[in-house]
């Protein structure tokens, strides 16, 4: 173990070293493929597990952001054994593959799925008091029959730290969580905890400011709670994140209110843990040169279009920087299936690899078979320098979601 974070930390975090990207023999990895780097995942898990033990928070993984279940045995090595699911399918995955505590929160549950969700859940949070009232009889009956299930209500602190509307759960007219004005203290019988989620790729300062608002607006109800789930968005594995501040905030909050704290990040687990490997299939010219790749921005990196953002490409720079500029385009017929313009230090050749960086969290879980284009493999670059092809996708998987 090498200490990479400053020694001056009050809660020192020891991190293992990671494989340099230059050491990965990209040409030997079949393309296209999402490649998770085991050493980078271990680095994140080492950090998260130390934050967990220093702070006393329970840190579970949000499946919506990271649910690569072939890595769950590694996650368990670091004491990460709980997951938060946003649907029946994710709850089933949590039970079957994670085999730890199953937390569930969804903006609304359906009558059809609720009984199964209730059976699977250890913690179940409701987005509104109307949903809690609707399903309360089932919860109470299950408890009477011996089922241990903790119930939470998601609150909306109406305090936003996130500027992108698409990712701001505390924006105007948000449907996510109960506002102070709509809070129903009369319906708290049977409720064990409060849940809030308002952050996205945020630092500890954002959590501190949010907690001040939560305590000011919902502090009246905290003494009757057993736990508070502070949601996700805590990007503790990003370089420069103030882990000391997070740890101290959690310790102080737990002491102030005498309750348990749960954090459920997704991005922090998969942050900077791997790549999308692609190959140049053709180069076309129409005022600008476009390299056509064997991946699609629309089908394989939809956040690039939704957010939008410019993904990193290994060895590439900004247009004009390195002498050879290319738009990088995908293989679907969508005119906008174009990633951005990048500069390379040489003319791209057909068959050459183009590697997109940080393509694990949220990217892998959002892919589709649009146009029937080949879905990238999923593989792991192991810490011992070997490549494991975990899953390939073919016609059967494409056909399975059609009828
Ligand atoms: C309720 C809830 N919890 C946790 C998360 C995970 O957040 P992140 O991946 O930003 O850490 C999300 C993300 O949308 C969420 O909606």
Give the topology, please:
Layout: E1 33-37, H1 38-55, E2 58-59, E3 61-62, H2 72-77, E4 83-85, H3 88-98, E5 102-105, H4 114-120, E6 123-126, H5 129-144, E7 150-154, E8 193-195, H6 204-218, E9 227-229, H7 243-257, E10 260-263, H8 267-270, E11 274-285, E12 289-293, H9 297-300, H10 302-306, E13 324-329, E14 338-344, E15 353-357, E16 377-381, E17 387-391, H11 395-400
Parallel strand pairs: 1-16, 2-10, 3-4, 4-5, 5-6, 6-7, 7-8, 8-9, 9-10, 12-13
Antiparallel strand pairs: 1-11, 11-12, 11-15, 13-14, 16-17
Helix pairs in contact: 1-7, 3-4, 4-5, 6-7
The protein binds pyridoxal-5'-phosphate (PLP).
Word description of this protein:
With 403 residues, the chain is α/β, with parallel strands linked by helices. The chain has 2 domains: 38-270, TIM Barrel, CATH 3.20.20.10; 274-359 and 367-400, Lyase, Ornithine Decarboxylase, Chain A, domain 1 (Beta Barrel). Helices cover 27% and strands 20% of the residues. The chain has 11 helices and 17 strands. The protein has helices at residues 38-55, 72-77, 88-98, 114-120, 129-144, 204-218, 243-257, 267-270, 297-300, 302-306, 395-400; strands spanning 33-37, 58-59, 61-62, 83-85, 102-105, 123-126, 150-154, 193-195, 227-229, 260-263, 274-285, 289-293, 324-329, 338-344, 353-357, 377-381, 387-391. Strands 2-10-9-8-7-6-5-4-3 form a 9-stranded parallel beta sheet. Strands 1, 11, 12, 13, 14, 15, 16 and 17 form an 8-stranded mixed beta sheet that branches. Strand 8 (193-195), helix 6 and strand 9 (227-229) form a beta-alpha-beta unit. The radius of gyration is 23 Å and the shape is globular. It starts with 32 loop residues before the first strand and ends with a helix. The relative contact order is 0.15. The mean pLDDT is 96.
